[in-house]
Amino acid sequence: MALKKKPVTGMKDILPAEMQVREYVMNQIRETYGGFGFHSIETPCVEHIENLSSKQGGDNEKLIFKIMKRGEKLNVEEAKEENDLTDSGLRYDLTVPLSRYYSNNAASLPAPFKSLQMGSVWRADRPQKGRFRQFVQCDIDILGDASRLAEIDLILATTTLLGKIGFKGYTVRINDRNILKGMAAYCGFPEESYDQVFIILDKMDKIGMDGVERELKEAGYEEEKVKKYLSLFESVTRDASGVRSLGETLKGSMDPEQAENLAAIIDSVTGISTCQFSIEFDPTLVRGMSYYTGTIFEIQVDGFPGSVGGGGRYDKMIGKFTGMDTPACGFSIGFERIITILMDEGFTVPGSQEKIAFLLEKGVSDEVTNQAMKEAMEERAKGVTVLVSQMNKNKKFQKDSLLKEGYTQFKEFYKESLK
Question: Which of 100, 246, 346, 357 has the most CB atoms lying inside 10 A of its own CB?
Answer without folding.
Answer: 246
